[in-house]
Write a structure and sequence with these properties.
One of its GO terms (cellular component) is extracellular region. By secondary structure, the chain is α+β, with helices and mostly antiparallel strands. It has 8 helices and 10 strands. The strands form 3 sheets. The protein has a 4-stranded antiparallel beta sheet with strand order 3-4-8-9, with no helix packed on it. β8 and β9 form a beta hairpin. The N and C termini lie far apart (111 Å). 15% of the residues are buried.
Length: 323
């Protein structure tokens, strides 16, 4: 049944241009596609226990998936999620001076320490004894721009990258076995161990960045508060004879009296009055008093007119109601 359902997948080995010597990678790829892992001739590569559950060979598809479109029952439109128990298969990395062989996918991933804040530096251990700084540069510059390499006389070094996300790419190389050229000498091979490193430069830059963000946040809040704060009144100038002469003219103008009286009260509260300016202030106070008395008389006249209007309205309304 598997051969009938998946016969179209069988590939002639004479027409295959890619290497399939790694059955685990081939099985993982077919397993991720939701198919029973089979060989080139149709034979099953792995046991049924690790195949994709719910695969029906007679239908050549996955079953047991709730369909999204009710008009197509029995057919799921969303591919099944990749199985979590299948390890990620890393590939061989070829460099000009060396070759990196991936670790066994069945082994647990290498352990790492807790990531320091603002980490841009990694620790690389397990280097071959004959590894030079140029070879290290060649291998790890694939992860991003390198700003510094501090190599020890022993088989480890520290590499500092330009950005933080490049560290994650370097951590991916942890567990790889490095071999220089084609030599099998022990001094020309080693298993890399890449881990986060605590560097003072990284922490200092991270603190500077946090302080800058805090300053920007404070500035943003201040701008928001200033935007929501009601506008402040304009600043009042200090007393001078010229300003006093201008203010005396404004006190006589009905349209500018409110502004002028505010300035006059501010000058008096500041203590601008002295022997030299007493006469000027006396004339301005007299002008303000005359203006206020005139306003009070006008108010009284308007109130009298209002009372007369009310009385006339009352008499007229009474006459209408009487009729």
């Amino acid at each position: 049944a598997a051969a009938d359902g998946l016969g179209s997948i069988a590939i002639d080995t004479t027409q295959l241009n890619m290497s399939v010597t790694d059955p685990t990678a081939w099985a993982t790829a077919m397993n991720n596609l939701g198919m029973v892992p089979v060989g080139l001739a149709g034979q099953q590569l792995v046991t049924d226990s690790i195949c994709v559950p719910g695969f029906d060979p007679s239908l050549s598809m996955m079953t047991g998936i709730t369909p999204i479109n009710p008009m197509i029952p029995g057919m799921g439109l969303v591919p099944p999620p990749p199985p979590t128990d299948v390890p990620v298969v890393k590939e061989i990395i070829h460099c000009k001076s060396c070759t990196l062989f991936p670790p066994n996918p069945n082994l647990p991933p290498p352990s790492t320490r807790e990531r320091p804040p603002g980490c841009k530096t990694v620790f690389v251990g397990g280097l071959p004894e004959n590894a030079t700084e140029e070879i290290i540069q060649e291998v790890f510059e694939q992860c991003g721009d390198i700003t510094a390499i501090r190599k020890s006389k022993k088989n480890f070094c520290h590499i500092r990258f330009a950005e933080e996300f490049m560290v994650d790419k370097a951590i991916y190389l942890s567990g790889y076995r490095m071999r220089l050229g084609s030599s099998t000498d022990k001094k020309d091979s080693g298993r890399l161990h890449v881990d986060f490193a605590q560097a003072r430069d990284d922490f200092y830059e991270w603190e500077c960045k946090q302080r800058m963000l805090a300053r920007e946040e404070r500035h943003r809040r201040k701008m928001e508060e200033d935007r929501l704060r009601p506008p402040s009144p304009p600043a009042i100038m200090h007393y001078s004879e010229h300003e006093a002469a201008l203010l005396a003219e404004k006190l006589k103008d009905d349209s500018k009296f409110s502004e002028a009286i505010t300035v006059l009260l501010t000058w008096i509260e500041r203590g601008e009055v002295n022997r030299r300016s007493a006469n000027q202030f006396y004339s301005m106070v007299q002008s303000a008093n005359s203006h206020v008395r005139r306003l009070m008389n006008e108010k009284a006249a308007h109130e009298q007119e209002m009372e007369q209007a009310k009385e006339s309205f009352k008499n007229a309304l009474t006459g209408i109601l009487t009729q």
